[in-house]
Specification:
Belongs to the IlvD/Edd family. 40% of the residues lie in helices and 13% in strands. It has two domains: 305 residues, Response regulator (Rossmann fold, 3-Layer(aba) Sandwich); 173 residues, Glucose Oxidase, domain 1, CATH 3.50.30. It is globular, with a radius of gyration of 23 Å. The longest helix is centred in the first third of the chain and has 20 residues. Strands 7-8-12-11-10-9-13-14 form an eight-stranded mixed sheet. It is an alpha/beta fold and 549 residues long. The structure holds FE2/S2 (inorganic) cluster. The site of FE2/S2 (inorganic) cluster (FES) has 11 residues, from helix 4.
């Protein structure tokens, strides 16, 4: 019975009248519109406008839209601050917020407008929990900036810090680049974490192919948002719930998209978390298996080539990627898409721009294998993630240079204490240890900028930004905070990374490791308060997606 017709819900009616709603409005299906707008960053800056367009679409299709929004955290703004610890934690808060609003208001359907990195998996996690018909709208990438005649993105900013450190760039040039790198609203402009997860939302079937590709500031975005509002009503009519869409085959296709588009290592954490929320079995090794078999077919920065997300949109978008992957037999077709199409429909409707160079045929890919690999070994018994960036396999053996925090490592890099061959180990930066699993961009950017990107390796229980590259291994599990082997490493210990064998080993005799294990004590640290304390108590291993549920 609707609120309008239930005699006992007069108090609720009076609140809705206060909002200007009529009895007729109250008899319509209610579509919650969750936007992840915050006014603190460019990534999600267009969400309020998009929410208004989605609401128009809902109304036009006979529904009653109700908007709300969550928090969001930008890694670029928090990177050099204690706030960086909040980034991954925000995923849980956003998921919980959307879930709580969904439970509180019993929406008949939902639209989730997402953009910046954590907002995408967070919304999908919440939708999986709520299991009401729902559509995801990815709010769109930023356009690239132009500087000295070339396209630039936030990746250039981070690497410019290292170039300044070695004198290849002075402060005024760095400042000039900062003024040009990010020209307006939207998510970081290439296949970094946000766009990787936007593609994941498409390939999972929750976001309609063709809507997320549209850059944030493109005029076409508004009409796409209105269409998404209508789609939410259609999804309600078809009872297109996440439990019908989030299947093992859909999850497989999402992993294929990460591999084929050279996506971010953060996708590993988020896919594991989404699988867990959806009740789907997914082991971290399965992601590595797909990445070994699927080539990178998009020439997107940072792993595939020189192009940005806006180039992909102009070339034909993720629909064109679907076409190429179907031609290569790399996708599972028995999946349900939220807009009612099949993958074959999406592929057939893809509009490939003549002469485009961004999406390749899978037989002539940009790189022969995916952008990441899952390794195991004595240093990471529960697995870790190697950022391969589509590069050839390599073997790196070198002495450990151990740091108990990202900050200590940054100081050593700035003092020129890191030399070629070193295996930098940064620990106590895991989900519980950080807490919050900081991204090591303040390390990887300067390493690349100093020309050390290919000659040193970095191993951490923290994680990486989508723009990080070099020989970097993150998500080492178990993490140091829980006494994993990474906690036992000492300066000078030999460490071997073998990407072809998918191994990461600490070459220290087991008897010696046992001695160290017996003597190990978790280092003292400042007592956290509030959300950090709650997070440390609840968060699981990176190999379980660092979920808290
Ligand atoms: Fe928000 Fe990159 S920091 S999308």
């Amino acid at each position: 019975m609707s609120i309008a017709d239930d005699p006992d819900r007069a108090p609720a009616r009076s609140h809705l009248y206060a909002m200007g709603l009529s009895d007729e409005d109250m008899r319509r299906p209610v579509v919650g519109i969750a936007s992840t707008w915050t006014g603190t960053m460019p990534c999600n800056l267009n969400h309020r406008e998009l929410a208004a367009h989605v609401a128009d679409g809902v109304r036009a299709a006979g529904g009653l839209p109700m908007e709300f929004n969550t928090i969001a955290v930008s890694d670029n703004l928090t990177m050099h601050t204690p706030g960086m610890r909040t980034s991954l934690i925000s995923r849980e808060v956003i998921a919980d917020s959307i879930e709580l609003m969904g439970r509180a208001h019993s929406f008949d359907a939902l639209v989730a407008i997402v953009g910046c990195d954590k907002t995408v998996p967070a919304a999908i996690m919440a939708l999986a929990r709520l299991d009401v018909p729902a559509v995801v709208l990815y709010s769109g990438s930023m356009l690239p900036g132009r500087w000295r005649g070339r396209d630039v993105t936030i990746q250039d900013m981070w690497e410019a810090l290292g170039e300044r450190a070695v004198g290849r760039l002075d402060q005024s040039e760095l400042d000039d680049l900062a003024r040009h790198a990010c020209p307006g609203a939207g998510t970081c402009a290439a296949q970094y974490t946000a766009n990787t997860m936007g593609s994941v939302a498409d390939f999972l079937g929750l976001a309609p192919f063709g809507t997320g590709d549209i850059p944030a500031v493109a005029p076409e975005k508004d009409a796409a948002a209105r269409r998404v509002g209508q789609m939410a009503m259609e999804a309600l009519a078809r009872d297109a719930r996440p439990s019908r869409i989030l299947t093992e085959d859909a999850l497989h296709n999402a992993i294929v998209s990460v591999a084929a588009m050279g996506g971010s290592t953060n996708a590993v954490l988020h896919l594991l978390a989404i699988a867990r929320e959806a009740g789907l079995p997914l082991a971290i090794d399965a992601i590595g298996e797909v990445c070994r078999q699927v080539p990178i077919i998009t020439g997107l920065k940072p792993s595939g080539g020189p192009y940005t997300a806006a180039d992909l949109w102009r070339a034909g978008g993720t629909s064109l990627v679907v076409r190429r992957l179907l031609e290569a037999g790399l996708l599972r077709e028995n999946v349900t898409l939220v807009d009612g199409r099949t993958l074959a429909d999406v592929a057939a409707q893809a509009e490939e721009r003549p002469g485009q160079k961004v999406v390749a045929d899978a037989r002539q890919p940009f790189k022969a294998r995916g952008a990441l690999a899952i390794l195991r070994g004595s240093l990471a018994p529960d697995g870790c993630v190697l950022k391969l960036g589509g590069k050839d396999d390599f073997r790196h053996e070198g002495p450990a240079r151990v740091f108990d925090s990202e900050d200590a490592c940054i100081a050593a890099i700035e003092a020129d204490l890191i030399v070629p061959g070193d295996v930098i180990v940064v620990r106590y930066e895991g989900p519980a240890g950080g807490p919050g699993m900081r991204e090591m961009l303040s390390i990887t950017g300067p390493l690349v900028g100093r020309g050390l990107g290919a000659s040193v390796a970095l191993v951490t229980d923290g994680r990486f930004s989508g723009v990080s590259h070099g020989r970097v291994i993150g998500h080492v599990a178990p993490e140091a905070y829980h006494g994993g082997p990474i906690a036992l490493v000492r300066d000078g210990d030999p460490i071997v990374i073998d990407s072809a064998a998918a191994t990461l080993d600490l070459l220290v005799p087991e008897a010696e490791l046992e001695r160290r294990r017996a003597a190990w004590r978790r280092p003292e640290r400042e007592v956290e308060r509030g959300v950090l304390t709650k997070y440390v108590a609840a968060v699981r291993s990176a190999s379980d997606g660092a979920v808290t549920a």
